[in-house]
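Deliverable D4.2, example record:
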Amino acid sequence: MVQWWPTVRSLRQYRLFLTLLVVPVLVIVLVVAVVVAISGSGEDGTLVASSTGVDRQPSGTTNTTPSSADSGIKPVVTFKVPPTQTPVPEPTPAVTSAPETEATPTASPIPTASPKPEGPVDYEVKQTDTLFTIAVQFGVSVADLVEFNDLPDENFIFVGQILEVPTDPAQIIERRESKPSPTTGVVIPAEGLNIRNEPNMETSVIEYVAGGGTELALTGVSKEVDGVTWWEVEDGNWTQGQYLELGVKAAPTPAATETATPTETPVASDGEVTPTPTVAATATVTATPSTGVASPIVATIVPEGGLNVRKTASQAGEVAYVAATNTTIELSGETANVDGVIWWQLVDGNWVQGQFLKFG
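Output generated by the structure prediction step:
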């Protein structure tokens, strides 16, 4: 009778076979795991373990071929070990670049022109200079230089002379418009007006007295000194503008009328009659600064202490008498300028200083 169950010997052999097969496989797997952990790298493929050794096998399914107890061939167990992932480098974070800005086009630098002087420039005339060469040098005309510097003509320059050279046409126009225009002025005060050599009251000297209604030719140049406007007379002297009627002409001189001046016969102290020359009949005219014989002019003595009437037109002249304050005297119209002082002659031939008289 055939027994279908295995014998005790067969069971023992089978157990021994399993033991010998499983233990090595576990050891090999453990070793491989340790090696992979240490090296951190591995190769793709399949590690095939067998009871007799380790061989490289193509990737495939894991097959277990059981051996027959009768054949005596040991079964080969094949394991597929998952491939070890090769670590990749850590990704580098992308650097965020600043947003590109549109480049602003740069304008080409414009050469800076040399600034022009704000006003005229001073130029000193050299040895070889002429107005023409100076005009060419500064880019102006000869006529402009003559006009700008008030030169008599284009040949009137000399070495060392300082000329003003305009740097802009507007300067020429401004200078032309600012030049004073000659004018006239009529003396307003009836007693006349002092004409001085300087435009001030402190240091100036009276050159003469212009009678009331006299027309004065003025250069147009004026100066303001201590709040008083002075005008330059054509002869170079000065007078106060507040006593002038500017821009008008004097009234025409009336026709001459002959008037006889009575002749006085003074009596000498010794009783002798001294003849006095008769004053010829003269025309009635307005007194002018010129020397000459004119019709009598009435004036009043101003100083409170009276005024010395001298025999000659000089401070050193002998005093003929003293005219009291507010005394009315008659002047012949003849004047004399002595040391800057204007003297007026009386009809009696004596002299008195005009600055102390009130005319009219």
